[in-house]
Amino acid sequence: MATEIRDAEDASHWDAVEEATELMNEGKFVEALVVLRDVIKRNPRNAYAYNFLGGALYETGQFEASRDAYRAALRLRPGYLGARVSLSHVLRKLGDAQGALSQANEALRQFPGDGDALYAAALANAARGNRKTAKKQLQGFLATNPELEAQLEVEQILAMLGIDDQNGPVEFE
């Protein structure tokens, strides 16, 4: 019975963010922000709303607010992989490579071998100058058989990382 209630609540949380995700898919991030803030006002326990709010804020260049939204999603659902990986990326963007790596490593602890978590960890390691580890994680990401576009991007990053004995942080957009 408790599982059915949780499943119904989860479904209602997804339904509540549907309009906002459609707006985001259309590139209408400001409009999505309005919808997501309304969803959160009606139900402040909707982790999906905070996660997508983080994404819309990121896309509009509001990185600190994006970080805070992802953290709110994770307070509600600590096992929310998408929010954790996204938090890793925004922390790296904000210059907190160690925080980014901590979040990516937590994602890998919860979801060993997950491609998105490997990718986030690799970029955080590269930002910290750990090129050898970053290369290993990117190769692990490629082993998950990502879509062609992601595969090509990662191959370019691997080329940018250079040979194993090079050190120094690498920044990615």
Could you characterize what this model shows?
It is a single chain. This protein is mainly alpha-helical. The protein folds into two domains: 1-77, Tetratricopeptide repeat domain (Serine Threonine Protein Phosphatase 5, Tetratricopeptide repeat), CATH 1.25.40.10; 97-173, Alpha Horseshoe (Serine Threonine Protein Phosphatase 5, Tetratricopeptide repeat), CATH 1.25.40. The chain is built from nine helices and no strands. It has helices spanning 2-25, 29-42, 47-59, 63-76, 81-93, 97-110, 115-127, 131-142, 148-161. Helix 1 runs parallel beside helix 3, helix 6 (97-110) packs antiparallel against helix 7 and helix 7 runs antiparallel to helix 8. The radius of gyration is 17 Å and the shape is elongated. The chain starts with a helix and ends in a 12-residue tail after the last helix. The relative contact order is 0.08.
Write the layout of secondary structure elements.
Layout: H1 2-25, H2 29-42, H3 47-59, H4 63-76, H5 81-93, H6 97-110, H7 115-127, H8 131-142, H9 148-161
Helix pairs in contact: 1-2, 1-3, 2-3, 3-4, 3-5, 4-5, 5-6, 5-7, 6-7, 7-8, 8-9
- Alpha plus pi helix count: 9
Main beta-sheet strand count, sense and barrel state: none
Q: What is the CATH class of the largest domain?
A: Mainly Alpha
Shape summary = elongated
Proportion of beta-strand residues: under 5%
Tally of domains: 2
* Low-confidence region ranges: none
SSE arrangement, N to C: HHHHHHHHH
| Whole-angstrom Rg | 17 Å
Span between termini:
46 Å
What multimeric state do the chains show? single chain
Mean pLDDT: 92
